[in-house]
Amino acid sequence: MTLVRCRECGREVSDTATECPHCGAKLQSGSQRRDSEPMPESYLIWGIVTTVCCCLPFGIVSIVYASKVEDYWRQGLQDMAYEAAAKAKKFAIIGAVAAPLVGIILFIVASMIIGDMGIIQEILEEIND
Description:
By secondary structure, the chain is mainly α. The protein is built from 4 helices and 2 strands; from the N terminus they run ββαααα. It has helices at residues 30-36, 44-54, 56-74, 78-128, and strands at residues 3-5, 12-14.
């Protein structure tokens, strides 16, 4: 017997139960559940690409969640597998969007600093003259 999460209340229930003893929601049997639902995409590739090309912290979090998808699925925890896949996708997207934004902000700050250096050099030249 394995435990699965009820889609309604989120509590753990036996995979052989036909309804949740906590909230009364109808459940599919374990064999029906595995046959009717495909394993979700783990988004592991996107996590790796985000880590290498974009934003290391968000990419690592995405990889961690992506690695949990198959484990949860094999344990019969389909809801947790779908949740882990959604989080892996979310962090990969956040990392891919955050990297260009951080790059733009750094470019603006660097431009401001370099622009200010020109003014500082002019002041120093006036002082030396």
